[in-house]
Design goal:
Layout lengths: L2 H25 L6 H5 L5 H24 L3 H20 L5 H5 L1 H14 L5 H4 L4
Length: 128
């Protein structure tokens, strides 16, 4: 197996673990995450209601990342992980809470880069 293929599998496993873990925690409506959603203007009730949906989506992303890392899923994973990381300082935690989570959005971005950045709309829905 080539070095690039090995790195791709390592990144796929890392993304899987990140999104599966976050998905399971969100399904359990982790109370500490409610203020992060509220930082974007949602009510506490709305934030609580959104967490199971977010958790389900995260688990779907985890499965796709591991088994069939379609570029659109990697784009979403990088965007979503960046958004959730930046939510922490927006919600009032130190900026280091964002920095600490750089790998959460960096891994899908790195895998996307290794696959080849999409050159057209069709590419977004494919795996290299």
């Amino acid at each position: 197996m080539s070095t690039q293929k090995t790195v791709e599998y390592i990144l796929r496993i890392a993304i899987f673990g990140t999104f599966l873990g976050h998905g399971v925690l969100a399904l359990g409506i982790l109370k500490g995450w409610i203020p992060l959603i509220m930082a974007f203007g949602f009510s506490e009730a709305a934030a609580s209601g959104m967490l199971p949906i977010i958790g389900g989506i995260d688990i779907i992303v985890a499965i796709f990342a591991l088994l069939r890392p379609v570029r659109i899923v990697l784009i979403w994973a990088a965007f979503w992980a960046f958004t959730t990381a930046i939510a922490r300082p927006i919600a009032g935690t130190p900026v280091w809470d964002f920095v600490e989570r750089s790998a959460n959005w960096g891994a899908p971005l790195a895998l996307l880069y290794l696959q080849g950045l999409p050159k057209n709309i069709k590419d977004i829905f494919t795996v290299r």
